[in-house]
Design goal:
mainly alpha, globular, single chain
Length: about 220
């Protein structure tokens, strides 16, 4: 495969996914009845479960999927995530969201470029990144019951570092997968999904740290 062509498709689909997510989130945030139905009842948790299932199916079945099916599932995931993002547009000033998005894009782009250009074998740090991710998940669960704001800030800072590391690692992983992946479009979709998730997590953590709430 032509890695330049693959990476172009990866970033194109990632951009499309982000556009769908943020566009959906903004639209839903302007619909009071829709907001109430989603967040006041059990619909929100159904959406979270659907998100989780879509990621699992895409990751597990991507090599055997029809390219069109993979694209539809990625767009569906982006849309479903966008529904949950409505809460962000309700809670934070739009100018603040745009500012944090820009900072996230700059950081993400820097580490993506590093992952693309470096000669270092980033697979060596994958274990530490996974350990960091599981540690973050555990700390988030613990702090859900503690409600400690300082602890929450520390978790967000560590999470930004971990997902910036994942950004560089995932870029390098996509390059390695291009040598044995049969379908170029499917590789572009799974690569876009992984980088999309990296960006979203970086954005959410930075929003917690620097976002201006409407309250």
């Amino acid at each position: 495969m032509d890695i330049t062509k693959v990476m172009s498709k990866v970033f194109l689909w990632m951009f499309v996914g982000l556009l769908v997510t943020f566009g959906t989130g903004y639209y839903v945030s302007t619909q009071e009845n829709m907001l109430y139905n989603i967040f006041a009842g059990g619909v929100y948790w159904i959406i979270i479960i659907v998100e989780f299932l879509l990621v699992i199916i895409l990751s597990a079945r991507i090599r055997k999927m029809n390219p069109m099916t993979a694209k539809i599932m990625f767009l569906l995931y982006s849309f479903v995530t966008g529904v949950t993002f409505a809460s962000i547009f309700v809670a934070f000033e739009l100018s603040s969201i745009m500012f944090v998005f820009l900072i996230s894009a700059l950081l993400f782009g820097s580490f993506a470029l590093f992952g693309h250009l470096t000669k270092l074998d980033l697979t060596k740090i994958s274990t530490f990144l996974l350990m960091g991710l599981f540690g973050i998940i555990l700390c988030v669960i613990i702090n859900y019951f503690l409600g400690n704001e300082t602890f929450d800030i520390v978790i967000s800072c560590i999470s930004v570092i971990v997902f910036l590391g994942f950004t560089a690692y995932d870029i390098q992983k996509i390059k390695l997968l291009s040598y044995d992946f049969e379908e170029e479009d499917n590789l572009a979709i799974i690569g876009a999904l992984e980088l999309y998730l990296d960006f979203i997590n970086i954005f959410l953590d930075l929003l917690k740290l620097f976002g201006n709430s409407k309250d």
